[in-house]
Amino acid sequence: MPVVQLSNVTKTYPPRPSGERPLVAIDDVSLEIEQGDIYGIIGYSGAGKSTLVRLINALESTSDGSIIVGGRELTGLRERQLREVRLGIGMIFQQFNLFTSRTVWGNIAYPLRVAGVPKEQHQKRISELLHFVGLADKAHSYPDQLSGGQKQRVGIARALATSPSILLADEATSALDPETTREVLALLKRVNEEFGVTIVLITHEMEVIKSIAHKVAVMEAGRIIERGSVFDVFSSPRERATQRFVSTVVKAVPDDAEFQVLRSKHPGRIVTVSFSDGSVSQSSVFLEFGRHGIGFELIYGGINDIQGRTFGHLTLALTGESGSVDAALDAIRPVVTVTEVD
Amino acid sequence: MDSLVQLLPELWKATYETLYIVGLTLLFGGIGGLLLGLGLYVTRRGSILQSPVVFGVLNVLVNTFRPIPFIIFIAAAQPLARLVVGTGIGNTAIIFTLSLAATFGISRIVEQNLLTVQPGVIEAARSVGAGPLRIIFTLLLPEALGPLILGYTFVFVAIVDMSAVAGIVGAGGLGNFAILYGYRQFNPVVTWAAVIIIIVLVQVMQALGNVLARRVLRR
Lengths: 342, 219
Known about the structure:
Chain A is an alpha/beta fold. In chain A, 37% of the residues lie in helices and 29% in strands. Chain A is elongated.
């Protein structure tokens, strides 16, 4: 039983000005997120991912379809009941959205007060959370006295205050520098591993997905166009948009312009050899070239590690007799994917 | 100068009356304006209790009454003052009329200051399950408190200004004093005495407002 289940969900906004066509933000999306997953949702701005995540905690209502969160159908619930559902779902934001009139302590206490947790339990819970996010010394600081990374740590502590089972992260690292991004992602990973919190991660940065997500869905124009385990999507992206995202973190095959430059330097045959996890080692492929007396030069590509599994594409310029090249390629085809480029 | 010395008891009485009229107006109009401003804020599109109909009605109401010049508003609202506070003249009547006019003016200032609160902060409160009333009183007002204090300080000065014409319905205060004993008696010294007291009042209140706002904003 998935902890979040969206079935044929559609969200349209009324046209402004009226008379125009309504804006379709989410278009017939179905999605299942399992307990304990870190599920990444990637897309360019305007793809609908922010709306999608707000449907899960009912900050936005669906126009059509069904959303089941923690076994409870959200559509048709009254506002008061939705507030109970939200208590079980934490959320963090790109701009942190801390309460500037309250201290760090006051920010984390807020959801506890909303949830009706007795005041004498606040002390213990808040100091636990502050230690977990590494801000025990900042309890009485105000948000404007903190750095971006510290603010997001407070955001995470606030979101976890009522021990939710789901955490929604809406571009949580997009306003942070690369170093701080790594720290916050490591913290989110700990939240997932130590507390078993399911995380739904919205981002436009493939690096974020690559470093902590288990599964990924790619959104474009309100639809999910591709989904799967992070390894599968990274190693063999099918859709063009997915390929563009993957190419931001994975050096795979040369694009047309790059190929023209390579072609002008290497008049012979050019092939791309693709390795995937568990397949034959590179050395056996290169040995085969040697056995057939073929020279090769590595001109493009790379080997990538996605959460301990490797894959990669190596583009090679080959030199040697045409017949021997064919024989060598035939010899390696059973174990790797070979693509002739021209 | 001699006449001013003779008029000193009247001047102190007028000062007291101005403080009395302005103080009560700030109280009643302040509360009315806060509620009306909150109403405008929470019912606007995308806000926590959005309602295009209620917002439209409130918006038209404020836009209708706010631009009426106060001296005309006093005359127009006199029957209403008789109905509500039982008299159309004197300090009580002018406090009623001033409070009513201030409610409309203050509501816009409150609305504007509430709009400076980042929508994301409100969304964060909604995301932890907070309801509209809790959001208004435990988050929205504290988040906007600094600008609201400065807004109300501005309003104080505006009410002092408006109260100057209170004399036309027989109410007192420094404005009435300056017109009655200064302007009509061709005695600029008396007029200026009232002016100086008004300047002092305004300066003191502005300084107080600034200090409070700075403390709330921590800068």
